[in-house]
Amino acid sequence: MLPDFRVRQRDYLLEISRAVTQELDLKKLLARILRISIELLAGQAGLIALKEASTWRVATAHGIPPAFLRYLEPLLAEERTTNLDVDELNSLLKDLTYTASMGLLNGVGLSLISHGKVIGVIFIFRNYPDLFSSNDKQLLQSFADQAAIAVYNAQLYGQVSYEQQRLAALIDSAADGILILNPDHTIERVNDAFERIYGQSDEALRGKRHEDTIRWAKKPEGQTLEQAEVSGWPLTSGAYLYVEGDLLRSDPQPLPVGITYAPLLTDGKLSNIFATVRDITHFRNADEVKATFISVVSHELKTPVALIKGYASTLRREDVRWEKHVVRESLTVIEEEADRLAHMIDDLLDASRLQAGGLALSRADVSLPVLALRLAKRFQTQTTRHQISVDFPSGFPAVLADETRIEQLLANLISNAIKYAPGGEIAITGQNLPEQVVVTVSDEGPGIDPRDLPHIFDRFYRSDGAVRKTKGAGLGLYLAKAIVEAHGGRIWVENKPVGAKICFSLPVVSNQLSITNHQK
Ligand code: ADP
Fold this sequence. Notes:
The chain is α+β, with helices and mostly antiparallel strands and 520 residues long. The protein folds into four domains: 167 residues, GAF domain (Beta-Lactamase, 2-Layer Sandwich); 106 residues, Beta-Lactamase (2-Layer Sandwich), CATH 3.30.450.20; 74 residues, Helix Hairpins (Orthogonal Bundle), CATH 1.10.287.130; 144 residues, 2-Layer Sandwich (Heat Shock Protein 90), CATH 3.30.565.10. Helices cover 46% and strands 23% of the residues.
C-alpha cells in the first residue's frame, strides 16, 4: 500500500492532468494548480507569474496580501525584469518576501518551462521556518511542468479562438455575400451580407443544400457548381469557378450576381467550398446604359443628320430648278433638324457633366410666372393643336435659382406635353406654399403608364410606346430631375384621370420680388 502522502500526491497530479486537459480558461486553471501546489507542499501562500512579450505579470496569487502584490507587480513590470532569469527572479522574490514578512516567510520558486523556454515561475511560501526539502522541490517541479503545459495549451487555444473570431469578423464585415459550404454542398454558414442579399437568416439557411439555395431565374453564364463537379472540379482543376446570372431569392425581383467558388483542400481532400456572391447590378446597369447610349446616339443623332444631308443634296442638284416654296420648306426642315441635333448634343453633354460631378448653378432671383409666360408664348408658335395656359396666383414669390436651367427644365416639360399629347390644353400652374413653390405642367394626352412611372426619370429611359411613336433620347426628365434637385427641390408625377401631370417644387429663399397674377 502506498503511504497516505503518496496517494494524495498521485491524486493531486491526476487532478491536475485532468484539469489541464479539460480547462481552457488559463486564469482558472492556474489558480487551481496553485491551490493544489500550496496544499501539497503544506504552504500558506503562493503565486504564478508569467513572462509576457516584454514583461512579467502575476497571473494568479493565493494568500498574498494585496499590498505585497501591489509592490511586486510594478517591480516585475519594470523594463529591467524583461530579461530576468529565474534565478534572479527567485532571489528578488526571496528578498522581497523576507523583507515583507520580516523574516517570517520562506519560499521556493521554480520555473515553468515549455519547449525549452522559460514562460513563467511558480512560488510557494510557508509561514514557518521549515525549509523546503529536495522532495518538496521535486514535487513542485511536476506541478510546474503541468502548469507549463496548461499555459502552452491555453495560449494555443487563445490564439486559435482569436483567429476564429478574427475570421468570423472578417467574413461578417465583407461587403460581398459569403457562403461556406461543406463538401456535401450543405451550407455551414453564411455572412451578414449574404443574409441581406438573399433575404434569409444564417440560422434558416444552415444545413440547406446549395442547389436548393442558389437557383437561377434563367440559365446563368459559366458553369454552375454542380456542373463543374460532374467534370471533376476541384480535384482535377483546383482553379476558382465563376458563374454569373440572376439569383432567385425571397424578394420577387431576382438579383444579378457573380459567384466565385474557391475550394479548400486539406491533404488533397475537399474540406470546404467558399462561395463569394457579388451584387453586379451596377455593372449590369453600366452595361445597359452604355448599350442604350450607343443605340440612342446612333439612332437619334443619325436621323437628323440623314435628313439634313438628304434635303441639302436634293437642293444642290444642278439638273433641277426648285420652286421657291420647296426651297423654303426644305430649308425649314434643315434648320429644325439642325436645332434638334444641337439640342440633343446639349442634353448629352449635360448628362455627362452631371455624371462627372453635378450641375454648377449661377443663381439670381427668378420670376417663375414671367418665365412660364415667355415659354408658353414661344411654344405656342410651334403648335396649333394645343392651347398653352399659364396660371400663377398673385404675389407669387421669386425663387433664387439659375434662370437658364429653370428655363431648360420648364421647356423640357412643355415640349414633352406637346410631343406626347395629340392636342388639348397644356396648363402651367403655380402654387405658393409655406417656404416652397410648386409648378405643375399638365396635358390632356395619354398620360404616363403606371409601369413606366418608376423609370421615367432614369437616364435614357423611354417607354415602349414613346420609342415607337416619337423621337427622343430619354434625357428630358432625367435632366429635369437633376436641375430640380440641384436647386434643393423635388419632382414627381401626379395621377390624373386624363393626361400627364408633372410637378416640381423649389424652395423659396428670397422674398424680395413678388409678381402679380399672370394669366393667358
Ligand atoms: P423622351 O421624351 O426623350 O423619351 P423624357 O426623359 O423626356 O425622354 O421622358 C421619358 C419618358 O416619359 C418618355 O419616353 C415618355 O414615355 C414619358 N413621358 C414624359 N412626359 C410625358 C407626357 N407628358 N405624357 C406621356 N408620357 C410622358
